[in-house]
Amino acid sequence: MPTKKKPLAPVAAPARRRELLDKAANVFAAVGYTATTVRRIADDAGMLAGSLYYYFESKDAMLEEILRTFLDELWEAYDAVLDAGLSPRVTFEALVVESFRAIDRHRPAVEIYQNEAKQLVAQDRFLFLDASQTKFEKAWLSTLERGVAVKEFRADLDTRVTYRFVRDTVWVAASWYRPNGRYSPEEIARQYLSMVLDGIAVRDEQQAHAEPHTRSRT
Amino acid sequence: MPTKKKPLAPVAAPARRRELLDKAANVFAAVGYTATTVRRIADDAGMLAGSLYYYFESKDAMLEEILRTFLDELWEAYDAVLDAGLSPRVTFEALVVESFRAIDRHRPAVEIYQNEAKQLVAQDRFLFLDASQTKFEKAWLSTLERGVAVKEFRADLDTRVTYRFVRDTVWVAASWYRPNGRYSPEEIARQYLSMVLDGIAVRDEQQAHAEPHTRSRT
Amino acid sequence: MPTKKKPLAPVAAPARRRELLDKAANVFAAVGYTATTVRRIADDAGMLAGSLYYYFESKDAMLEEILRTFLDELWEAYDAVLDAGLSPRVTFEALVVESFRAIDRHRPAVEIYQNEAKQLVAQDRFLFLDASQTKFEKAWLSTLERGVAVKEFRADLDTRVTYRFVRDTVWVAASWYRPNGRYSPEEIARQYLSMVLDGIAVRDEQQAHAEPHTRSRT
Amino acid sequence: MPTKKKPLAPVAAPARRRELLDKAANVFAAVGYTATTVRRIADDAGMLAGSLYYYFESKDAMLEEILRTFLDELWEAYDAVLDAGLSPRVTFEALVVESFRAIDRHRPAVEIYQNEAKQLVAQDRFLFLDASQTKFEKAWLSTLERGVAVKEFRADLDTRVTYRFVRDTVWVAASWYRPNGRYSPEEIARQYLSMVLDGIAVRDEQQAHAEPHTRSRT
DNA sequence: TATGAATGAGCATTCATTCAT
DNA sequence: AATGAATGAATGCTCATTCAT
User: Fold this and answer.
1) Given a cut of 70, is residue D214 above it in pLDDT?
2) CA–C1' distance B66–F13 (Å)?
3) Residue pLDDT, tens place only, C82-111
4) Phi, psi of C33, rounded to the nearest 5 degrees
5) Measured over all CA atoms, what is the biggest interatomic distance in chain D, rounded to whole angstroms?
6) pLDDT digit string, tens, across residues A37-73
7) Contact between A89 and B195 using a beta-carbon 8 Å cutoff
8) What confidence tier does A209 reach under pLDDT thresholds 50, 70, 90?
9) φ and ψ at A201, to 5 degrees?
10) How far does Cα B49 stand from its chain's mean position?
11) A194: Cβ–Cβ under 8 A, 6 or more apart, which residues?
């Protein structure tokens, strides 16, 4: 998406661009997009606020590029999984793993996405977020539904509600996950899958517990 | 909670205050705190921006009152559960139910909390969020640990990771839950508990699946 | 100056008016007119800001009345002195004494006058300050000039410059004079007159000192 | 005197800063600090209000710099005088001369000081005004007391009252003195000293007048 | 490549004032 | 005689953005 009226960064210098976007993403994630000043980003990059406009059209444009880059890479991985012809359960597991890998590689972008997407979709510039969201929902929901159909997933769950729970469960991890921390993305994924697939309760023969006591509370 | 010098809304008129806080909370939740202008709140309330200051000291003060009100009510419910001497699993279930009830009653406040808490704790005025957070973690974590001890919860899960998983999943529901929607908070809680306690996978199959395929991927 | 459109204080209740003006004058003097909020005055008077408008047309109107009252009383005393047919020197002394008495009785008003008059005269409402100022200058200047003419005052002083020094000398005392303090207004006047009339230097026969060393500095 | 985070006017461009402070000082002096809007200062400088913040942290910061610059220069001159080992009377004369020179060079700052100092000292930022005030009083008072001790000044005057008298008279001159007017600062100082040291009354007359008529009035 | 200086729109907040009760 | 609630204009200040150099 080169040149409009101003020349902008001469297409070259993409390394510096990436570097700047990286700084920006970290600040956006840490402070929130609205609360982040262009000056703050420039400070982090060791330049003056105005100088950023040599590389980017606007603050919004920086945000857009950060999110696009993240989503492009995410979908590459997702599409590979979805096109692999795996069983629903294995697909489910693979999607979770890829999600944690995306968090690992694009933590700031994921956090920004989580915090800001809702407001952003109101702007034309960020309509692509909506498209991604829709595609995302379709991928997960159909995986769940196929799983129910082939009896890999329980039939008594509302798939839409389950979808939301699972989706949030995965992505919210970006708020506390730290790359190079105790667990690799694959290990975190394993734990998550263990919980989501098999539950946290100890299994036993009597079904008593299967029906939580909430019923009597309503 | 009386104020410094200004009498402000003469202590009476608490109805109007609550009404205004309600409008404010909805805007804060929908648009984000920083992005919300007091003009916007005033517009929604049918008054001029300056008039809000008859009732509230500042925009921050509104936010504080919104969050305090929510947390106060949440802790009343939580404390009742925690002091009831229930088994870990029943405690867990009850906490989940109360959480969804809080979301039902204070959805905007919960959403604000989710989105803004991280930035807010840097301000003295919002240190109480940190205190609440700590107490919250203690309550959940100890419930999980007690559950593991008495073999109501699986011993092979990292309790801290499980805690985050549960915490996030529950509260993130505020972003999509709509009061008066299809499900009551208790019904949502039931579905959630069903998933979290027992997993979404169909049981009593071969144990092969218990070990997800991720291992072979790293 | 009764009623314009609004009834205002029913002409009666002049005691309450005076009380309120007194509070107002003290705040104006202490904090400065612009920096004084109507709310602050009302607080001091134990009422709400809006309630002041039952008694006064506006904040400006309060200020006007405070200054008018002061100047009216000052001129009554000044006129008595000026009309008494006294010698220039005795007139001078009497004017100084009356000035300190005015400070004693209207300290806040004097302070306000000192601080604000310059800005106020730009407004029509306060043109009377200019008139008073002119009359004031005439009274003092002519006294000084008459004194020079009859050789009661030194002929080698620039009367305009001397006028300004004397004028300021007297009135600036309002900034530190405290009624009921160590000195009565008459005693302060005596000290001031002693300095201004006879100087603070010890008198001696040689005139050497009469010519300060500043000449060699220019 | 570097600033917190913002580099502000990149340390260079001190000429523009001084120019702007000059405009600001004139407005502060003419209109009063509180009554001065930053828009007004910006107008005078031919820029927009917000642009001032490229050079200065705040309106307060401008005021501070104006007053500090003035006081720094004043104390340089005062200290030179005080350290010169002059007799009390010559010290007195020299301090007066330096005061009028300061008025000549920093008239707006002096006027601002006169009008605003009392309110400003309440703020931490302006505590240095208090320090200067204390040092100032010590310098003048000790000069007067030394003068009394060596019989250069009359012993029958209250030195504190005399101090205030002299202090006020000198500085209030800033309200009417106009640089490039009829008199140089040295000439004004000469006239002032003539009055204050020797009095305005014609000497060697009968002593009857030495005791003003006030006594009979109390 | 970047800076320095400025813009202009917008923001939270203050405050004198109004007026029905 | 005073209150409670609101107005509306102004204020100090911030910030994304521009552009000549």
Assistant:
1) no
2) 27
3) 999 999 999 999 999 999 999 999 999 999
4) -60, -50
5) 71
6) 999 999 999 999 999 999 999 999 999 999 999 999 9
7) no
8) very low
9) -80, 150
10) 29
11) B156, B157, B210, B212
Q: Say whether C191 and D161 touch across the interface (CB within 8 A).
A: yes
Determine the angle formed by the axes of helices A159-172 and A107-120, rounding to 10 degrees: 130
For chain A, the DSSP string reads ---SSS--S-S--HHHHHHHHHHHHHHHHHH-TTT--HHHHHHHHTS-GGGGGGT-S-HHHHHHHHHHHHHHHHHHHHHHHHTT---HHHHHHHHHHHHHHHHHH-HHHHHHHHHHHHHHTTSGGGHHHHHHHHHHHHHHHHHHHHHHHTTSB-TTS-HHHHHHHHHHHHHHGGGT--TTSSS-HHHHHHHHHHHHHH-SBPP-S--GGGS-GGGGG-
Provide, as residue numbers in chain D, all residues whose Cβ is less than 8 Å from the Cβ of C146: none
Averaged pLDDT, B184-192: 95
* CA pseudo-torsion sign D101, D103, D107, D112: positive
Question: What sign does the CA torsion over A194, A195, A198, A204 have?
Answer: positive
**C183 or B70, which is more confident?**
B70
A-B CB pairs within 8 A amount to 161
Reduced to 3 states (helix: H, G, I; strand: E, B; else coil), residue C153 is: strand
| Predicted pLDDT at C39 | 96
For B114-153, the pLDDT digits (tens) are 999 999 999 999 999 999 999 999 999 999 999 999 999 9
Q: Which two tokens stand for residue A80?
A: 């590979």
Residue A17: exposure state from Cβ atoms within 10 A (0-12, 13-18, ≥19): middle
Q: Per mean pLDDT, which range of B104-113, C109-118, C207-216, D83-92 is the poorest?
A: C207-216
Question: Are A212 and B193 in contact (CB < 8 Å)?
Answer: yes
Q: Are A214 and B193 in contact (CB under 8 A)?
A: yes
Q: Which of A37, A115, A198 to mutate to probe the B interface, most B CBs <10 Å?
A: A198
B7: which nucleotide lies closest, measuring CA to C1'?
Answer: F4
CATH 3.40.50.1010 fits D59-199, yes or no: no
CATH fold for the domain made of C59-198: Tetracycline Repressor; domain 2 (1.10.357)
Residue B66 predicted with pLDDT over 60? yes
- The H or E element containing residue D126 is none
Instruction: Compute the distance between CA of residue B91 and CA of residue B84 in angstroms, rounded to an integer.
Output: 9
**A168 Cβ contact list (under 8 Å, min separation 6):** B168, B169, B172, B173, B175
CATH code given to domain A59-196: 1.10.357.10
Which pLDDT score is estimated for A134?
96
The mean predicted confidence, pLDDT, of chain B is 89
- pLDDT surpasses 90 at D137: yes
The full length of chain C comes to 218
Taking alpha carbons only, the member of D135, D22, D125, D11 closest to residue D71 is D135
More confident residue, B15 or A10: B15
CB D169 within 8 A of CB C165: yes
pLDDT at A127: 96
Q: Within a 10 A sphere around the Cβ of A130, how many other Cβ atoms?
A: 13
The yes-or-no verdict on residue B216 having pLDDT over 70 is no
User: For chain B, which residues make up each domain, given as ranges?
Assistant: 59-199
Chain A contact set for B27 (CB, 8 A): none
d(CA C48, CA C41): 9
Give the separation between CA A2 and CA A20, rounded to whole angstroms.
17
Tell me, what amino acid is at C114?
Answer: Q
Tokens 């309106």 correspond to D59
**pLDDT tens for residues C37-60?**
999 999 999 999 999 999 999 999
Contacts of A72 (CB under 8 A, 6+ apart): none
